[in-house]
Amino acid sequence: MNRVLSRLGMGVWLLGVWLLLWGRVDALTVLGGLVAVAVAYAVSRLPAVPMVTRVRPLRLAEAALEFAWDLAVSSVVIGWHALRAPGRVRGAIVEVGAQSRSELVLLALTTSISLRPGTLLVDIDWERSRLRIHGMPVRDAAEADSTRDGVLHTERRLMQALVTPDDTRRTEDLS
């Protein structure tokens, strides 16, 4: 039943986006939106709306502050390398094994990664929760480990802030 409600929630969201794009609400636009949502579900694997059982506001604020700090620091680091030695900045693809199985947490994590200067999500394996990230600057194994540790730290913060059934079940299975 939760899956049906979750999919219905995603359908309502898509219909809302459709109506915003058209800029008006009338019978024909709503009908067209319903058809578009039905076709989208029929031809693709659209995700269900991820469920959150609990949001911890203090932890969410900590995660937001951490993101802002990381954004500022990475901007300075990338700017410094771009000005100092623009042709010699090296990057690497770093694989990170995410702990979360929640699509919501992984979505927040991948968004965070892609918005930071110097990191970019290259690939994600949803089934195994594996992320491949291009990190910059990465000159050696220690810097690759540092990039990986930063991603895992952000993921832990997000898991503490957004409690989801997927991660709750996983935590219970591990105990």
TrEMBL record:
InterPro entries: Cation_antiport_E. The keyword Transmembrane helix applies. It is a multi-pass membrane protein. It holds the Pfam family MNHE. This is Na+/H+ antiporter subunit E. It is found in: Cell membrane. Keywords: Cell membrane, Membrane, Transmembrane, Transmembrane helix. The chain crosses the membrane at residues 12-43. Its main location: membrane. Belongs to the CPA3 antiporters (TC 2.A.63) subunit E family.
